[in-house]
């Protein structure tokens, strides 16, 4: 059994918006319970969310909204529907509205320098949440809060070793990989970490025979897994970059007359409730947890940034790894 561990989660700031591109969704929320800022002035936070593609994302959004309300901040919230152009429009809208702090979870890693330079010029601090970016100037954001996705990939690889041992598997391991959104930090880094374990310890017996994005969605996982099974019917392991894709894949595995968790061993990442239900039913063999409840930490960070305090570049959160035998015990405690 794998033990719970603490993993580095980076502190990130998020950009919030007012007027968005026509295809983006927006809403506002506020609370009058607390001033939230220095001198009694209420803080206005602009938050540009990736979208609502998964159970993890839904839980993350609820956490941010609830924490902002509890802190007494005015929250301007936008749903980018997984489109970078929508997030950029939202951030520019937040800049125009002169919010106090912008936070966002980037759709993809690159392409942010121009809009973040605009925020810096306007003297609005930016926090990255959940996902990191690649930039030519690290001063364009003040902090990052999120998971170490590369380490999650490594943990998934080590978890597969345990799952294979428990299953008594002998012989070649033919792996199908369901990748997250192309160009997104968790997709790139979860693949990288898993590959590190393969290349270090399993060059001769593990092979990724097929790999494709399922865009972090249940529908995407179902569709892509169906294609995988047609082109590679001898797959015996699935590594999914999130629970929702794994859950969609399970439907296709069952439709093909195979037993998920037995004929095809399944490792996924996140730890949402539906994932634990599937694991308690024996359909997922192991899950690497990625905690979505970043709201309270984000609001603490927002206040420090707004008050001009020096903040950490990275913040720690608690995460763990779970196998089938832990699922039933852990299920009642799932908050997301």
Automatic annotation (TrEMBL):
The keyword Glycosyltransferase does not apply. The keyword Phosphoprotein does not apply. Its main location: other. InterPro entries: Peripla_BP_I (IPR028082), SBP_2_dom (IPR025997), TAT_signal (IPR006311). Transmembrane segments: none annotated. It comes from the Bacteria. This is ABC-type sugar transport system substrate-binding protein. It comes from Streptomyces umbrinus.
């Amino acid at each position: 059994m794998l033990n719970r561990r603490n993993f580095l989660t980076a502190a990130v700031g998020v950009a919030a918006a007012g007027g968005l591109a026509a295809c983006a969704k927006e809403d506002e929320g506020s609370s009058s319970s607390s001033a939230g800022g220095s001198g009694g002035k209420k803080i206005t936070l602009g938050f540009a969310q990736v979208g609502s593609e998964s159970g993890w994302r839904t839980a993350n959004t609820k956490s941010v909204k609830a924490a902002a309300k509890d802190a007494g901040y005015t929250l301007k919230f936008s749903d980018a529907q997984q489109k970078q152009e929508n997030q950029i429009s939202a951030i520019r809208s937040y800049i125009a509205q002169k919010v106090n702090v912008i936070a966002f979870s980037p759709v993809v890693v690159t392409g942010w320098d121009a809009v973040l330079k605009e925020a810096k010029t306007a003297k609005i601090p930016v926090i990255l949440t959940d996902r990191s970016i690649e930039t030519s100037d690290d001063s364009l954001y003040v902090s990052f809060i999120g998971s170490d996705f590369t380490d999650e990939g490594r943990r998934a690889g080590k978890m597969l070793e345990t799952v294979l041992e428990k299953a008594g598997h002998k012989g070649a391991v033919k792996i199908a990989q369901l990748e997250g959104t192309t160009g997104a930090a968790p997709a790139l880094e979860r693949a990288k970490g898993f590959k590190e374990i393969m290349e270090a310890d399993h060059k001769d017996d593990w092979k990724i025979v097929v790999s494709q994005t399922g865009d972090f969605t249940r529908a995407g996982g179902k569709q892509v897994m169906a294609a995988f099974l047609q082109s590679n019917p001898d797959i015996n392991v699935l590594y999914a970059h999130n629970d929702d894709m794994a859950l969609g894949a399970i439907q296709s595995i069952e439709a093909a007359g195979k037993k998920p968790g037995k004929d095809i061993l399944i490792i996924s990442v996140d730890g949402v409730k539906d994932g634990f239900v599937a694991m308690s039913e024996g359909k997922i063999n192991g899950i690497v947890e990625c905690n979505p409840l970043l709201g309270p930490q984000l609001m603490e960070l927002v206040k420090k940034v707004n008050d001009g305090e020096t903040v950490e570049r990275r913040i720690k959160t608690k995460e763990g790894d779970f196998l089938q035998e832990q699922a039933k015990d852990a299920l009642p405690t799932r908050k997301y």
